[in-house]
């Protein structure tokens, strides 16, 4: 499976890369034609810091009190908080970075974290958002806990709008001309009898 791997560089900074594996993969919400491996962006210091700088450029004019990180993007979130606090409307501000629990696609904040969201301006950070369902659910959770969504950022994302909240991305489906995402019941690969190569979640992928 790894023989079909390619490396894609970000248009805004060639030092940021993602690994792409062609095949037939199942995610929580869809079946996809490629596995998007973002391990390096999330785990490596230099790449995470570079990604944070790009996201900061997109949100320097947006007042932000808290960054909520999903899908193990907390290192990027920490760098992003630092970048935002150095310049712009958030200069010298103390920005919190938290990671909530996700159960049945719903965001749960324990009592000790609610104060970081209630009456706060919250930026959402996630790794992938191809359908928009994950971001929509998280934004709903932010509003449920009394927060005001200031925007959303994703490393790899599709083309969508959620509740008029700005969504920015480092990589998009336009960077992969052959990338396709389908509802599980509408997957043409399944209909053609092509077996699923692996399962994908926020931790990574597992071959079947």
* Beta strand count: 13
Strand content: 25-35%
The biggest beta sheet reads: 6 strands, mixed
Indicate the low-confidence ranges by residue numbers. Answer: none
- The end-to-end distance, rounded to whole angstroms, is 11 Å
Shape field = globular
The structure class reads alpha/beta
> What is the ordering of alpha helices and beta strands?
EEEHHEHEEEHEHEEEHEE
CATH topology annotation: Rossmann fold
Helix coverage percent of residues?
Answer: 10-25%
For the record, what CATH class applies? Alpha Beta
From the structure provided, what is the oligomeric state, counting identical versus distinct chains? single chain
Number of domains: 1
Let me know the average pLDDT.
94
**Architecture in CATH?**
3-Layer(aba) Sandwich
Number of helices: 6
Please describe what this structure looks like.
The chain has helices at 39-43, 45-59, 74-84, 111-114, 133-144, 188-191; strands at 5-9, 17-26, 31-37, 66-69, 96-98, 101-103, 106-108, 121-129, 148-157, 167-172, 181-182, 198-201, 204-207. With 208 residues, it is an alpha/beta fold. Strands 1, 2, 3, 11, 12 and 13 form a 6-stranded mixed β-sheet that branches. Strands 5-4-8-9-10 form a 5-stranded parallel β-sheet, with helices on both faces. It has a two-stranded antiparallel ribbon with strand order 6-7. The longest helix has 15 residues, at 45-59. The mean pLDDT is 94.
